[in-house]
Amino acid sequence: MIGLDFGFGPLEAEFWRFVFVMTRIGAALFAVPLFGAAAVPSQVRVIITGALAVFVCAWTGVAAPPALLSLAGMIDIAGEVVIGLALGFVLQLAFAAPVIGAELIGAGMGMSIASTADPLNGAHSPVLGQYFSVVLTLVFLGTGAHLDWISLVVESYRTFPPGSPWMTPGRLHMIDAFAGDMFVAGISIALPVVVLLLVVQIVTGVISRSAPSLNLFALGLPAGVLAGIVAMIVSAPLISDRLTDLAHTAVAQSATLLFDNGPKPHTALAANARKARPDGR
Asked: Contact at 8 Å (CB) between 76 and 162?
């Protein structure tokens, strides 16, 4: 299997097949926001990867390259890593959209300086960004979107067996287009709050020009924070619906990467993820 023979015959071949299957799943779990977070121990990711690989080996006829350490085998491994990273990167884009919206809201409220350590990526992020990320995570898990995404990872072995051409210019364009959609989604999340904050700042500026002695700019920051909190409370149902649509859109885009211009999905969960696409195709 790898150019070495330890004398275990079929058992050894099955073991290297199992390790090869773990490559795509491990890359996907490494790139996905939930399982790939810095707060998740690497041992947990390895256990989940191994558990999923057992089911994939039992449900599919995936075969490892005959010489895993040869040049052809390394190319196949690199292709597996690319497919897994792409499936996880799509979810990373979806989870970055609320953070973009939070940056815009925080800048209008004057809370850009308030940042804490984000346990999801190990870096510093705005407080509002963590709030939206936690809400999106709860929505993503509560709606079962993580199960749909895992089913897509398993289904990818039937749609694109190891060694099949996958990374085409068309699929790269799909990822680019989805990244642009996520910027638009982040702006739409922040738009109601930002508009109200803009009105508050305009009113404060007009009053300050009319009566300079009042020194209203000293009250501008508290007024902006209060107006932002009120706007977020009022627009909470809208933001919740937008985050729910974002979670379904992320899974639908993952399905698009797999099934557009390719075979149809075989599992019910993958079919449901395909139906969840915004255009309904």
From this structure: yes
Q: Which residues contact 103 (CB under 8 A, 6 or more apart)?
A: 112, 126, 129
Look-up of token digits 């085998």: 73
Residue carrying the six token digits 């977020």: 232
Q: What is the pLDDT of residues 197-247, one digit of tens each?
A: 888 778 777 777 776 666 666 666 777 778 778 888 887 788 888 888 888
Helices 71-109 and 145-159, interaxial angle, to 10°? 150
Q: In the chain, count of helices (H) and strands (E)?
A: 9, 2
Q: Where are the domains of the chain?
A: 10-275
Q: What is the pTM of this model?
A: 0.72
Output the six-digit token pair for 26: 């491990």
- Cβ proximity of 175 and 90 under 8 Å: yes
Distance CA 273, CA 8 (A): 41
Q: Which of 28, 6, 30 is nearest to 16 (CA)?
A: 6
